[in-house]
């Protein structure tokens, strides 16, 4: 556990610097606090901050960067000739990493000695046997280049970890010394510490940007990789979805059209369920209901929004599906072949979206000023006429925005469709057919056994990209509509 | 001058009698009201149906059919069994003999073949042998064994399997059910609370009866620990910056836009992010609660930031002005006065964010928390973070995806436990809010 120890050592140095700086500045001021520019705490914090923060930052960056650098170097040890036609450098490197992990395991279990693992002349057959004895999982025979690269990898990461430990501890010590040197009674410690804290606050706020960047980059890079292996036009316009799991590429049909159709069909069914119920519930709650009814019914409806989606998925699979089968299945009307269908998933997703639509619409209807209603009543309109002809038109942009947000939720929903919609990609108009969606296929393509470099796995990133763009577009569009058409009262 | 024409004719309608048009309008009014009521009723009906089906299908997971047998083994029998080639089947024979004699003691004459016992109880010999090898001092004294019945027998008692639907197979014969009924009548087969479901670990696909959710609860616990430790400080720091310090410029706008967009990004996209960045790029261990926690942290951050900003905004400016007035710096004002006053609201928002993260499944599927069997509790704190484990919702999904209907019951039972956790968290949040929330 050297990493945890290193972390604790840095913290200990920072704590030591805190105490020393505090004691030092008090001693320099002759225990007269009024001679100090800042409170003694700030001198201590300044020292702790200057020794701890840069060291931990370097540690974090090093931890991320080291495997990348070492991979590149070790990868240089594999000649192009050692990479077979059927595979790629990335796959070979995965094998190298596995071998290196296997050697570590073998050493840990005593199957292999450290010197034997480093011996460049080691007998590879004997070594593979020892590795598998130690329980390491190796997919293919270790070839000499792979073994050399694995040895290189281990040697480099050992050197790297040592260097990291030394450098991080040195930085912490240097920071502590520097802070101690500048610790004098007239040093403006509070201002410096507050600047530092402000920097940390900005860093925390920037994580949102980093997350978006991470999402976009991981989607874009893998999508580009996918389009290198599979033509983009076939992906966007192909009407057949039939990934093969045996071969790598070639045989698979990866057209997104059936998946998009399934996604939109299920979302449509969900909205047909959720919008009328949610909207009428919102109208009743905000216009008719007594405070008592409202206090009970609103939180109860919102419970539906707090239930995890896996619960809805199971509800669709085991309760709603069989129920629909009894009515529309072979024993009933004969329209349905299996419990998992567009209708099952759509219905359950609609239930999930009811509170979403009702809460948002409720807020929007409540925001319509009372004066509009009073004016309408004054002209002799009944309450329902007022709602239909005055309140709803005034609230319309907001309601449309709410519905668009609900639609984006429906399109991105995963667990209900994974469990309730079936697995067959199909272009059909029958809502009782099983269909599948973009999200469900992302899950099935990435949880299978196919390796990450194959088009069958990479297609999930292209699907994710499509999903991300569609939901983002819907959200932006919803906000735009709300902003543009919102009536400004007062 | 304007002429106001005074109609000479009598008024067409009277306020005291309702004319057809008013009647129509009133009817429309009533209908409209009824639509609203119906909508709410439908919504609540869905809620009730959901609750009933969860409870009805999930409660059986908490009970288990057990077979109680008083069993004595003598030293000779033990030695004899240990010396045989097929040791467990020797124990099996001893066990069946004991069962037969107990039935005869109670005056019950049922003929059964040893294979039937195996169908009802599985291979009991191994369990018995293990017990005596671990407790050799128990040889010679009567011991009460409580053995779990097979999943089909369990299903028979819970109504999942009935005499009409049973098809003779190597798992269960119709004739076995007579034996089961007889054993039930004399009290050898009973229903008991299934502690193993709450504390146990997942089993292979062939043993739904023994599956438990305990290990994945621990997995979820470690994940929530990561989420709490990361998202609370980062979320609070980000909110403080945006609410108290950020100048009006493009950078602040960029952060704000990003936060509101991230709040609406589908959760599965965060799973893709976790897979690509944490597993492919950084080579963190797959299926580890640490990675799950990191992904859920990124997912929960927008929620926590939004609620924290709301509670910071709720602290009146007079507090800030008073602090600044007596000479506090901006930073001291925020950390000494605003933050403590906003703390209850921040805590409530964090708990609600955590509850949301606890129930989230889709991102966990992508970082590999399904598809393997979480068999063992982690050995220590570090192993709890980095060793492969499952999480409650992922475990429920795993069970729901298995073919054996016995696992469905476990999935519903798992949902009850998950909902109990969520309910507790939400109640704590509500109590905190009621207790400490201050209205200014």
From TrEMBL, chain A:
SUPFAM superfamilies: MetI-like (SSF161098). GO terms for biological process: phosphate ion transport. Residues 260-478 form the ABC transmembrane type-1 domain. Coiled coil: none annotated. Pfam families: BPD_transp_1, DUF3708. InterPro entries: MetI-like, MetI-like_sf, Phosphate_PstC, PstC_N. Its main location: membrane. The keyword Ribonucleoprotein does not apply. The chain crosses the membrane at residues 155-180, 200-221, 264-288, 300-323, 335-357, 390-411, 457-482. It is a multi-pass membrane protein. Part of the binding-protein-dependent transport system for phosphate; probably responsible for the translocation of the substrate across the membrane. Belongs to the binding-protein-dependent transport system permease family. CysTW subfamily. This is Phosphate transport system permease protein. The lineage of its organism: Bacteria, Pseudomonadati, Pseudomonadota, Alphaproteobacteria, Rhodobacterales.
UniProtKB/TrEMBL annotation, chain B:
Residues 217-429 form the ABC transmembrane type-1 domain. It comes from the Bacteria. Residues 1-21 are annotated as: Disordered. Its main location: membrane. GO terms for cellular component: plasma membrane. It is found in: Cell inner membrane; Cell membrane. It is a multi-pass membrane protein. Keywords: Cell membrane, Membrane, Transmembrane, Transmembrane helix, Transport. The chain crosses the membrane at residues 34-55, 221-242, 262-282, 288-306, 338-359, 411-432. Belongs to the binding-protein-dependent transport system permease family. CysTW subfamily. This is Phosphate transport system permease protein PstA. It comes from Marivita geojedonensis.
